[in-house]
Amino acid sequence: MTTSSNTSFKTELLAIIPNLRAFAMSLCGDVDRADDLVQEALVKAWHKRDSFQMGTNLKAWMFTILRNEFYSNMRKRGREVSDTDGIYTARLAGHPEQESKLDYQDFRAALAQLPEDQREAIILVGASGFSYEEAAEVCGCAVGTVKSRVSRARARLSDLLDVEGSSAFGPDGIAAQVINKPVAKSAA
Amino acid sequence: MDGSASSERFKRYNAAADSSFLEAGTFFGLPRLRLLRGGTILEIGNLMDFVMDSMEEEGKSAPSLDALAASRIGKRLREAYDRIVEEPVPDRFANLLSELEQQESKRGKAE
Predict the structure, then answer these.
(1) Alpha helices, DSSP H only, in A29-142?
(2) What is the pTM of this model?
(3) Whether the complex's predicted ipTM surpasses the cut of 0.90
(4) Which residues in A lie closer than 8 A to residue B42 (C-beta atoms)?
């Protein structure tokens, strides 16, 4: 690669980093590990940049690399990473300035309860701005699989947030939980 | 959820959206209404969410991107994500890329 194409590759990578960090965070739930993951992905991307075709979707390419790094690390370390619940909680506890953002904490906690495949699917499609097709490419699975994961993730989040959200309103939380139960029979 | 149950729910939502949803009895048809202490209504959930959720179930297909983007879940998801996107990026990444670039150009000259 020429120096100028190196520079433009670098510039484009830099522009993707904020997004990459957010995705990494959603995968591992911990800011330090997320940044290490981003760093590994950047080094890897740099060394295999000849295999990237300029003008195609660099963001999807980077996300794919980062995701592969994450899962290959996870395999190396065994299943320790699967305790994302605890990791998320620790991360939340470390941010007292967000205490007032109860909704946000609820949301992060709910997100942490999703299975990994559903979480990454809903993040890619619902937050990172990928189409179902691109998300399928990043995850190396069928488009229909992404769609069903997103759908299940969304349904699960709705359930979790309804119950947890209303319990924050004190004594009425109990009433709210009754209200939150799906209505089995017609509410005549 | 099968088609008929979802259709029932859809009708309920619609009926609720119509005019009478502030009556206590219909709260039970609206699972996402939130209540404030003392029973005052704090936030009436986004009715459009219910309608869209139901419509999606009705069609038995995955939510469209638009529906996801417009939903309450979608909104909160993006808010949480954007908080991280908007965080200042540590210098380590720019430094790393500069280093990689310099290594490359040195190697280029040596060849």
Answers:
(1) 31-47, 58-77, 84-93, 102-112, 116-126, 132-139
(2) 0.63
(3) no
(4) 169
